[in-house]
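Bug #77: duplicate submission created two jobs. Keeping one. Sequence:
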Amino acid sequence: MISRTNRLDRLTRSTRDLLEIAEQLREVGAGLRSLGEPWADTTSPAGRMVLTVFAEIAEFERALIQLRTGIGQTAAMRRGMLFGRPAKLAADQISMAHRMLEEGRSAGEVAAMFKVHRATLYRALRNVPPAP
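Kept job's structure:
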């Protein structure tokens, strides 16, 4: 396997996977060298040790980033921020769609009127109960 990336953290996300790749290369008489990170060289014992340490540090950094991102998202949601795509249909449109379907119009016809796919209409109808 030839990787054109110049950073090892793009090759794999876990230390275990990186070490497994390095071991598989060693078993066939090859080594791993990073052009962008000269310390990453599995052709020597010192290089393998340094590679292991730096891989663990990179994995630790990714875990911290994930933790901070989760904390930030939770705080943003508490402040009322919404994540994801905006809804295609507003609540009043969904209510109108319910009424139209009850009046006998087909789901395809109602979806076409609102310029959405039938699946989008069904999803909106499933997530919002009909108005009384």
